[in-house]
Amino acid sequence: xxxxxxxxxxxxxxxxxxxxxxxxxxxxxxxxxxxxxxxxxxxxxxxxxxxxxxxxxxxxxxxxxxxxxxxxxxxxxxxxxxxxxxxxxxxxxxxxxxxxxxxxxxxxxxxxxxxxxxxxxxxxxxxxxxxxxxxxxxxxxxxxxxxxxxxxxxxxxxxxxxxxxxxxxxxxxxxxxxxxxxxxxxxxxxxxxxxxxxxxxxxxxxxxxxxxxxxxxxxxxxxxxxxxxxxxxxxxxxxxxxxxxxxxxxxxxxxxxxxxxxxxxxxxxxxxxxxxxxxxxxxxxxxxxxxxxxxxxxxxxxxxxxxxxxxxxxxxxxxxxxxxxxxxxxxxxxxxxxxxxxxxxxxxxxxxxxxxxxxxxxxxxxxxxxxxxxxxxxxxxxxxxxxxxxxxxxxxxxxxxxxxxxxxxxxxxxxxxxxxxxxxxxxxxxxxxxxxxxxxxxxxxxxxxxxxxxxxxxxxxxxxxxxxxxxxxxxxxxxxxxxxxxxxxxxxxxxxxxxxxxxxxxxxxxxxxxxxxxxxxxxxxxxxxxxxxxxxxxxxxxxxxxxxxxxxxxxxxxxxxxxxxxxxxxxxxxxxxxxxxxxxxxxxxxxxxxxxxxxxxxxxxxxxxxxxxxxxxxxxxxxxxxxxxxxxxxxxxxxxxxxxxxxxxxxxxxxxxxxxxxxxxxxxxxxxxxxxxxxxxxxxxxxxxxxxxxxxxxxxxxxxxxxxxxxxxxxxxxxxxxxxxxxxxxxxxxxxxxxxxxxxxxxxxxxxxxxxxxxxxxxxxxxxxxxxxxxxxxxxxxxxxxxxxxxxxxxxxxxxxxxxxxxxxxxxxxxxxxxxxxxxxxxxxxxxxxxxxxxxxxxxxxxxxxxxxxxxxxxxxxxxxxxxxxxxxxxxxxxxxxxxxxxxxxxxxxxxxxxxxxxxxxxxxxxxxxxxxxxxxxxxxxxxxxxxxxxxxxxxxxxxxxxxxxxxxxxxxxxxxxxxxxxxxxxxxxxxxxxxxxxxxxxxxxxxxxxxxxxxxxxxxxx
Length: 1007
What we know:
Elements: E1 4-10, H1 11-27, E2 40-47, E3 60-61, E4 64-65, E5 73-75, H2 82-86, H3 118-127, H4 129-144, E6 153-160, H5 166-180, E7 187-194, H6 211-227, E8 250-254, H7 269-283, H8 289-295, E9 303-306, E10 309-313, E11 316-325, H9 328-348, E12 352-353, E13 357-358, H10 367-371, H11 374-379, H12 384-387, H13 395-399, H14 405-422, H15 431-446, H16 453-461, H17 464-484, H18 490-537, H19 541-546, H20 549-614, E14 626-628, H21 632-644, H22 646-661, H23 671-677, H24 680-702, H25 713-721, H26 725-738, H27 747-751, E15 765-772, H28 779-791, E16 799-804, E17 810-820, H29 828-839, H30 842-848, H31 865-885, E18 889-893, E19 900-907, E20 913-917, H32 924-929, H33 934-951, H34 955-975, H35 983-989, H36 992-999, H37 1001-1006
Parallel strand pairs: 1-2, 1-6, 2-5, 6-7, 7-8, 8-11, 11-14, 15-16
Antiparallel strand pairs: 3-4, 9-10, 11-17, 12-13, 15-17, 18-19, 19-20
Helix pairs in contact: 1-7, 3-5, 5-6, 6-29, 9-20, 9-21, 9-22, 9-24, 14-15, 14-20, 15-20, 16-20, 17-20, 18-20, 20-23, 20-24, 22-24, 31-33, 34-35
């Protein structure tokens, strides 16, 4: 048999089971994609809401994405059915069953899901049937073309029966799947249906009858009718009936209370248990008995009959599962989350303490002093020289080769002085004035080739934002590099940036003050220059001829002028710097915000990771379906050794850092890019993934003598129970007891014998399998344990097996009960109470079923003896009355006692005449109301039908016979004193349709 498995999830329950199953599969798949299971899984999830898909954090396990692809999804809104309701004739697949359309008036744009209405669920399915059919076919082909590439598969349909989507989809999904794959031997369809739970928070009504429960009963009625071959659903694509010998091969029924009255969480535990059962079924193929149990090979009679008519299929089942496990995955998660928290602390604080690991606070440092270092300001382009454009900030400006202000003006002044002195056309008395004029010309027009000093700063002012961004981008690259190498933490960077912000804010005020101070200083220089000019002009002829006083005065004047123009340039520079700094502050504040954003997300991730770790390996969280065995002290000791290994921690956290940075792409050097790509979900994902891989390697390195993972469960049990055989025996007995069916049974119904079904096997058929892994090191203990499982098996269990388990870290006990009609379910009567209550409301009755109001579906409960007698009597009475009217039954006397009696003549096998007395004596009313023996009933029915076919073919004969019936009814009215409420008269009147049908008048009128 192929190991291809198509998992079809319907509604919220189906989606949750798929999610749990995919997480289990992912958990047991190694880094190379190798799984211990040979199963090829393919998935289809159909729903009327995308709420489950939006819970993205729940679709991951240890950072690994378990979400479905778009090709596996079909999400359809109930609000889109209006076109069908307005024009049903254009939709042949829906036309005949959506009436009365008025029941759908409640639908609007805000209708959530299928609003707990099964028929609305079916309508949504029907509207999207073509896409759903294509989706199912596409996934089937994908499954068949992968793995073993065989044209065989097991199809698992998962749903809850209480809502509107899963319960409303299930019948058509099963029918469509069977139409797509008619061969029920090669394509087995198994349904896993979650029953409504009593006291559910999803029940909307505060009183009266709830659709939540009624839906469950209605869905079971339709599934039973399909299995009993009494209901062929309409193909919602074309309106024709879908026919199949076997729509589905079995239906597992599940509840949140098992047969031992243990309660499970409906929203979390039960979907996980269903997924675990599915996984174990596909994983442990050695349990050959499971196939026999699911096929019901112990009983050839799959259908209970009422008076020979198929009524209740015995294709329903249930299961229970119990695992004893060394929780390797949970241990790995505990260790991984513990390391992940260390990694986030390093990223945020970078403070390793001996004997403690990375602390959750930074290493404190005087960052203000760091910022004031000249080499720091120089490297970050925030020196005075840069901010005043004494040196270029932008790349082109830096390459322009500008002279520094304090070098520029002395050089220009010296050159001009030589030129002036060498120019014989310039009088000596004009030297200082000419020098000033020419320096002014340079200041006003030629400074740095941009039209003078003021023009230079005016032009450069237009690029202040670009300069601010260039400065902050340089700071960002520097800081990112130092964070990326692990030199600085995020909080240290934040403190560093705060120090820069404070320094720049202070310097802006200083620049404004300096600009004002320079004005005063220039005024003093002007006074000095005026004195020098007077002294220069007062030098006489002899002074000019025999001394160098004028040269000295000119040199002094040149020094004053170059200083004056330098200060004036610095004044412009400081004014420029005071206007540039706010832009740098703005850009730096934005950068700080990005760092804060990453820090905050790491902080939130740390909180989330810490919570996740706290939820792992909790002793108060053992599930009833799972018992965990582990050494918590050894786990904590391994985590402690990982934490205190400083060299290893630095290397490991650096690996985590690289993985986080890679979220923003390759060659990232920007907090902005990283902040734009990092969010809480992908941050936790990366941390979890890296931590899991690192933990695996660290376990191999540090836990060679005391491993806490990759531990064989048999060896672990040996350490615990080898010296206490009584405790081990109790342990095995408890496992069997706790692996109870996920269903409570009605023991009275199980023991009840339904008349006409005596040949069928009585009661439940049950099988148990124990998956016990091999353990060569503890061979004798394993043999002893296997013997105990055989010895302690449940009494009355027809099939108990102990097979070699596939997974070495767990013992699994699975119990399956089969050959079960739905009436065995203990809560069925409770569901029926709500169902019967709602069926009294015409609109609700229609909304409960895909077609009609359910009145034509066979009953889920077998009739009682009294009910059976009444049904047999109801069936016999029209035949008995016709027998009298046609004089097949006549009044007479008992030849031995002389008592009056009614008799019917017949012939035996040899042709001899026989006179058969009817029960009830000579009183016709008693005869008509009495239950006759089976042989006599069959004789009356056969005789009436034979005579009708022979002597009452002509219309006149039929009308004459019917006239006799009318006269008989009227005679009874007269006998009752003309009482129209007479019980026997009313019962005779109720026979009118059946009498017409038997006589043939109705059929003739139709023709």
